[in-house]
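Problem 12. The chain below contains 281 residues. Write out its predicted structure in token notation.
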Amino acid sequence: EVLDALRFPGEKVVLAENLSAANAVLLDPRSWALRWSRNVMPKETPPLAEIRWVKASDIIDWKELQEWTANVESGGRIAELLIIDDEHSVVTYRSKFHQPKGSLNNPFRELDNEQRRSIAHAWSDSRETSEGTWLDIDPENWHLNGIGIRLEGGIWLTEIEGRIVSRIINPTMPNPTGQLGRVVELLADLLSKGVAIRSGFKYGTRWRAYAGAVGSEHAPWLIVPVEEAPTNWGEACLSARLAANVNKLWLCAFVTGNNEWRYLAIERPPSDSRWTNPVKH
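Solution.
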């Protein structure tokens, strides 16, 4: 089924064990094959993609997936995944790194002293609620545009957003440990990239992220920390497809050994690069 899906539209696929005949090598030994466009000769042109195939029910090792994707992308190739469902149908997806980036100020480095004092004053008079913190501050004077819900007479923050505000006011404040600490660090990384964050509950994910002020445009990204990511390929493909249906990109966030946050997408290819087997069910 896998080869049928790729070769039916005329794409040229060479399995890993036959690559010497195509004068090509894999960038990662976990790849199953290389793919060339239908109108080129493999011996004369670099491949477009490295391919793996998995079953929809297979468990995802996110660490291993990001390693494979990084190796494949390092050579300018597409990391292509063929997902086989219970009916032996094949659907194409890609794993790809993205870097959310927005136009908002970095709240950790780009607030002036007056803005910082205003936030600190509001925080000192804050009131805890059952699910977060209420700040009595005129929303027009709220300078953290990436977080906080603007309501009449003030700003409401989630618990995690409150941790961010505490760090902005007092950069030496220690970060919480465990899963809560990782989520706080992830939110801090996103805010430092100039994006605005809101709940992703209605999309079945942790957050939705905007490239500018909330309300000025739609949120292009749905973001979930790896600890909350789907566990098998069927679930991951569903998340990716639902995101695409609302013109968003689904991203799984994880921290590397260098303490750097990276964002891995599982996404559908462009319409001219979606391979499926020709069998009709």
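Discussion. The chain has a mean pLDDT of 90. Students who got a different answer should revisit the alignment rule from Section 12.3.
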